[in-house]
Amino acid sequence: MTDHDNPYEGLADEGDDHRWAFGTGFTDPLEGVETSIPAGIDPEALATYCLMLGDDALIYSQRLQQWMTRMPELEEETALANIALDLLGQARMFLSRAAKIENTTEDKLAFFRVEHEYRNVRLVERLDEDFAELVARLLVFSTWRLALFERLGISRDPVIAAIAGKGVKELTYHRDYAAQWVVRLGDGTNFSHGKMQAALDSVWPLVDELFLPCTDPALDAVVGRAEFDVVLDTVFATATLDRPEVAARAGAAGKTGRDGVHTEALGYVLAELQSIARSYPDAEW
Amino acid sequence: MVSTAYAVAASVQDPELPQLTLADLGILRAVHEDGDTVTATITPTYSGCPAMREISADLVHRLKQAGYREVSVRTQLSPAWTSDWITEAGRAKLAEAGIAPPHAAPNRTAPVPLTLTARPRIACPHCGSARTTQTAQFSGTACKSLHRCDDCREPFEHVKAI
Question: Which of A34, A166, A174, A182 to mutate to test the interface with B (most CBs of B within 10 A)?
């Protein structure tokens, strides 16, 4: 006898079959994890930092999911779905960590905040105009996040360290996937080369924001720009592409996504992400 | 000594790879038994693994069936799961199911190298041929990649070494 003879039985625990309309239900991703805050760490700063890392992954995952059914091949579709899923998993753990500190819930943070309360970088909220932009942004984001997570593996906060330690394995695949596509398109036909270069140029103004110091220096691990550039220059050289030389996109009065100052694009992402939860606020997931 | 609760928990199947038990996969980290109370500790394979909730529900269900009254399931994030924890028995079951088992996971010390070329070829679990092609870095689940054998032409999955 197996536990999976009848798939419908797996959709709900006993007595909560009303839930299955929303999926298979969710449990706290940090269930049983020791979440006390180490001495010397400011809880407010820790919550804010977790929101930043969680929001980057949440918003970007949503943007990647918008590609579902639009990818050029089934293999690319499953790849992107898995990348989006990894990021969603990371988002859930970071938001849960922040939620415990702020005495709220993961779902409230994901679905019931307004635009200026999100702390993600502006890079993750933009819309990909084409496949080249998709892989350009994925390369930039995963290269930066992988370097950051490698450092956060020794974070003073053991929960951040654990999430990052796991995330490194996932981001390694994300970066390789994006880099291989950038090489294939950059070193492809004249047409694909032109598209790939244009895509990099369009993403580049939002790269600088990744390297702004975020919050309490006790928590934040700053990735050196040089380390990031070394990886990208290797990809660009192999792909016969040029590193873009375009000015960084300014914030508003010096404020950017980390301060809650976003581009118009975030509104569209949130409208889609939050619509069901806001329409049925009492529903359980 | 292996407790009864451990034996029950260890025999629970993975929902995505039902050929394998939780023990085969190496995701069951500990089972603590005290009278009729059991705490099982599991570790996710990937951060977003949607099977974790099913695994947790299965553990509770099976342990309660076995007579334990209080059953809780805890998550342990660190150290992160590695495919090296898949047991020999688990590897044999994977191969039998037509899924190529993972090689040894890369030993990570400082900067993760960028891979721009195809990863090493994976032997076909159907015919044993080494002439295979990776068709996708991700398959039906995040933990597997998709390949095709250039000799017997069969597609197959491979559990990635992480």
Answer: A166
Cis peptide before B79 (omega within 30 of 0): yes
Chain A residue nearest residue B45, CA to CA: A166
Which residues of A, range 209-238, sit inside 8 Å of B by Cβ? 227, 231, 234-235, 238
- Residue A134 pLDDT more than 60? yes
**A13–B57 CB contact, under 8 Å:** yes
**Which run of H or E residues covers position B105?**
none
Identify the three-state secondary structure at position B38: strand
- The answer to whether A169 and B162 have CB atoms below 8 angstroms apart is yes
pLDDT in tens, A218-272: 676 778 889 999 999 999 999 999 999 998 998 888 899 999 999 999 999 999 9
User: Chain A: residue nearest B81 by CA?
Assistant: A166
ipTM: 0.89
List, as own/partner pairs, every contact residues A19-24 make where C-beta atoms lie below 8 angstroms and the sequence separation is at least 24, other chains included: A19/A284, A19/A285, A22/A283, A22/A284, A22/A285, A23/A285, A24/B50, A24/B53, A24/B54
| Cβ contacts of A89 on chain B, cutoff 8 Å | 44, 46-49
Residue with tokens 């220059």: A233
Give the closest residue to A86 by CA, choosing from B136, B49, B122.
Answer: B49
Test mutation, B43, B46, B47, chain A, max A CBs within 10 A? B47
| Whole-number Å distance between alpha carbons of A119 and A110 | 12
- What integer pLDDT is reported at residue A1 of this predicted model? 40
Q: Which residues of A141-172 are buried (b: 16+ CB within 10 A; e: fewer)?
A: bbbbbbbbbbebbebebbbbbbbbbbbbbbbb
Residue A31: name the closest of B61, B55, B25 by CA: B55
pLDDT tens for chain B, 162 residues: list them.
Answer: 457 999 999 999 998 888 999 999 999 999 999 999 999 999 988 888 878 888 999 999 999 999 999 999 999 999 999 999 999 999 999 999 999 999 998 876 678 889 888 777 899 999 999 999 998 888 888 889 999 999 999 999 999 998
Contact: A165, B44; criterion CB under 8 Å: no
Tokens 């593996």 locate to: A153
Could you give phi then psi for residue A17, rounded to 5 degrees?
-70, -10
Query: Is pLDDT at A14 greater than 80 in this prediction?
Result: no
Collect all residues with Cβ–Cβ distance below 8 Å to B66 and sequence separation of at least 6: B4, B5, B8
Of residues B53, B62, B162, nearest to A24 (C-beta): B53
**Amino acid at residue number A125:** E
- Specify the 3-state DSSP secondary structure of A134: helix
